[in-house]
Automatic annotation (TrEMBL):
Reported function: Catalyzes the oxidation of glucose 6-phosphate to 6-phosphogluconolactone.
Alphabetized GO MF terms: glucose-6-phosphate dehydrogenase activity; NADP binding
PANTHER family according to UniProt: GLUCOSE-6-PHOSPHATE 1-DEHYDROGENASE (PTHR23429:SF0), GLUCOSE-6-PHOSPHATE 1-DEHYDROGENASE G6PD (PTHR23429)
HAMAP family: G6PD (MF_00966)
Organism: Nonomuraea maritima
Gene: zwf
Pathway: Carbohydrate degradation; pentose phosphate pathway; D-ribulose 5-phosphate from D-glucose 6-phosphate (oxidative stage): step 1/3
Active site (UniProt): 252
Protein name: Glucose-6-phosphate 1-dehydrogenase
Signal peptide start and end residues: none
PROSITE patterns according to UniProt: G6P_DEHYDROGENASE
Domain Glucose-6-phosphate dehydrogenase C-terminal: 201-495
GO biological process: glucose metabolic process; pentose-phosphate shunt, oxidative branch
UniProt: NADP(+) binding residues: 61, 102-103, 160
Amino acid sequence: MSPAVPTHQEAGSQAGQPHLADLVVFGGTGDLSMRKLIPALYHADRDGRLAPQTRVIAMSRGGLTDDDFRGKVDAEVRGQVPIDDPEMWQRFLGRLHHVSVDVGSDDKSGWDGLAKLLAGHEERDRVYYLASPPRTFGPFCRELQGAGLVTPHSRVVLEKPLGNDLRSAQAINDEVGAIFDEHQIFRIDHYLGKETVQNLLVLRFANAFLEPIWNSLWIDHVQITVAETVGTPGRRGYYDHAGALRDMVQNHLLQLLTLTAMEAPARNDREAVRDEKVKVLQALRPIIGGEVGRFTVRGQYTEAGDMPGYLDEPGSTPPTEASRQVETFTAIRAEIKNWRWAGVPFYLRTGKRMPYRRSEIVVQFKDVPHSIFPGGSPNRLILRLQPEEGIELHIMAKEPGAGETTLRPVPLSLSFGETFTARVPEAYERLLTDVLAGNPTLFMRRDEVEAAWRWIDPILEAWKADPALPEPYAAGTTGPAAAHELLSRSGRAWHDQEDV
Ligand code: BG6
């Protein structure tokens, strides 16, 4: 293990000043880097959040020179970002470098190139961002250490997926943990970088009025939905072995659940916040054996109109048995066994090729204890993460008019776009800024990732043992019928279904 590292408050620059860092992106010419990381870094630079000498070093097997890489970024990223000052863009390109390293091969010469570039800058923070498949994490870290490039001010950033079950996640954590201390490891879940997700904490813990009613006495159930219109063209190689449960629920949806359900941390700091999130994951009631069929649903989209089914998505390897088995949609009824939430179902739902792109948390309150008006419906709080971030509280109001009182639910609505005119940063901008500042609060700790897998594993096992295929749903619809039955059997409905 590397020597103890000062915390981000102690290390590097003064508070508020950008940290001087070398950011090494392994997989630096890949899709994630070109679509998300480089644009996010450009925005950070434009907003003055990169220290003047900060360098971005892309690592790949590509054999590119610095100039080749800058040309590639100029060609591929220029159109994705606003360039109001061409000189600034040139300065940003000047920060970029490329080194060719073939991780896992016998040829270690590439590491000399990286060592040479980093030499003489040992005082800088070093951030190694692994935008590569998880099987490369262990070998990368070992070779990095072998090349003598892990300094006390080094950090490593791991992209998801972090394993495909508890055992593989533990193995990755062990391998990386043999080289880096836990506080140097930043496990990304990009949902935590989304503005509205952070706003959820502010809404809950910077306002007093919600806390007294944020519990099973007042809340009937919670719905967490991440619906996407996209399918999986060209991704079968990955998706056949992931599926919606591993790809979305184990990380993004469970993160939303923890933030919705956690107790107030004593401080807004790295350990206090994450301690509370872990407690929620540990309190999730396991869904095991025969319960899996009752509390979970899996579906796979089929052809509809001009949208191909999962098995016919273009640009992919031919479908196999694994393709037929994999779920592109899942819905789960979860429960949190603690004092605050006992008896409150948390319904989780995510799917590809749904009719709309929508990520939201819907908190459904209980009905009034005794109604004196006909036609009322319970209050509902909707936290919309995307698109059009906002918060809506649905309250009952009287329709104007003489005669009989007629009720109508109306939203008290906060649109972030209309209220705050500043540009909403992309999730990766916030997360990269935090990595560079050494602040891990919005990153997943080892025990958090493993607690999530511990809850997911029995569901995966039961699905694997079940010969039934996922239930088909037509592309462009809200998922299989069973997803609706999951709620309707207790007299509830997905909130978008009530509007249909
Ligand atoms: C990724 C998943 O983590 O999140 C993708 O691998 C998914 O399958 C994506 O499409 C969704 O992210 P966002 O930010 O578009 O909601």
